[in-house]
Every structure is written in C-alpha cells, then in structure tokens.
Amino acid sequence: VILIIILMRAGFTIDIKDLKKVGKPAILLSFLPASFEIIFVTFFTSVFMDLSITEGALLGVVLSAVSPAVVVPRMTDLINNHLGTKKGIPQMILAGSSIDDIYALSLFSSLIELIQGGDLNIYSILKIPITIISSLLIAWSISILFIKIFEKKRDNNLIKVFILIAISYGIMKMEKDVPIYSM
C-alpha cells in the first residue's frame, strides 16, 4: 500500500505536457541502464561467483530496480521548487524510474518461472513486452477515467486520495487473485 501512495504522489506531480517533451529520453533512461546492469551482473556472477546465467540475471534484475521510495520524494521536491523543470529532468527521471520498475518486475517474474522449472520459450519472452505495454495502457486508461470523474466532482482532495488508494488496493488484490499475464 505504501508503494501505491508513493507512485500516486509521483503521478500527481508529473504534468502530461512535460512528460511528452521528455518522452524518448525517459524511455531510454528506463531500459538502457537497467539492461547494462543486468548484463554486467549476469556476466560477472557467472564468472566469479559460480552462479548460473539465469541466477546471475535474476540478481542483476534485483540490483537494477530503482527504488521509488528514494526517487519520487526527491524528484517531486525538485518539481515543486522548479529546479530542472525547464529541461524536464525530474519528470524524465520519474517516468524513467517508473518504467524501469515495470521492466525489472517483468524480467524478475519471467526469471523466477524459469528457475522454478519453466522453460525458455517464445511465450515467456513475449510476456515481458506484453506486461510492460499492458501495464502502461491500463494505468493510462484508469488515469483518464479518474481525470474525467474528478473534473466533474469538486470534492475534498482527501476524499479523492482515499478513493484512489482504495481502487489501487482493489486492483492490486485483483492482480493477485487473477493471473492476468499467465500464458
């Protein structure tokens, strides 16, 4: 639940116009550093730590994930103080770190399946981009819905936050109960 609150705070801070300006660099910032970290850790753990490539990749994924608890408060402070916002630096880091976490979690779940006896096939490889794209589309759709609802209702902001937390918790619970991404 705390992670939901932290990510909601990031979402409330980012302006969609600013995000459009920094789109491509944010995408590159989300995949490239994490991919290089995963490759580096995979190689060195397989050489120096006697881990399998899959175990090394799993360790690389864990180490490459960005902590929203660290990034979000710092970037929202920068945005609120108008530091770096002309070039979109805090917005780019917020967007990039969010996508980075989706990327890391998708790889993590695929590698866990592989380690637990699954086999590497086209479905397990395709599941990674499908998870990333579907997560972004679902989040975007829900955010558009709430923007439309909250524009019409001028209630207390605290009530809006409680509604969003309750719905986020419900989505999180539904995700645990319904295996959406299993193929």
Topology:
Elements: H1 2-13, H2 16-21, H3 23-48, H4 53-64, H5 68-80, H6 89-115, H7 122-152, H8 157-177
Helix pairs in contact: 1-5, 3-4, 3-6, 4-6, 5-6, 6-7
> What would you call the shape?
globular
Overall mean confidence score, pLDDT: 77
Number of strands: 0
**Main beta sheet strand tally, sense and closure:** none
Assign the structural class, choosing from mainly alpha, mainly beta, alpha/beta, alpha+beta, or little secondary structure: mainly alpha
**Low-confidence runs of at least 5 consecutive residues:** none
Q: How large is the share of residues in beta strands? A: under 5%
What helical percentage do the residues reach?
Answer: over 70%
- Order of SSEs, N→C? HHHHHHHH
Radius of gyration from CA coordinates: 18 Å
For the termini, the CA-CA separation is 27 Å
Number of helices: 8
Descriptive report:
The chain has eight helices and no strands. With 183 residues, the chain is mainly alpha-helical. The longest helix has 31 residues, at 122-152. The radius of gyration is 18 Å and the shape is globular.
Quick tags:
single chain; 183 residues; mainly alpha
Summarize this entry quickly.
The protein is mostly helical and 183 residues long. 81% of the residues lie in helices and 0% in strands.
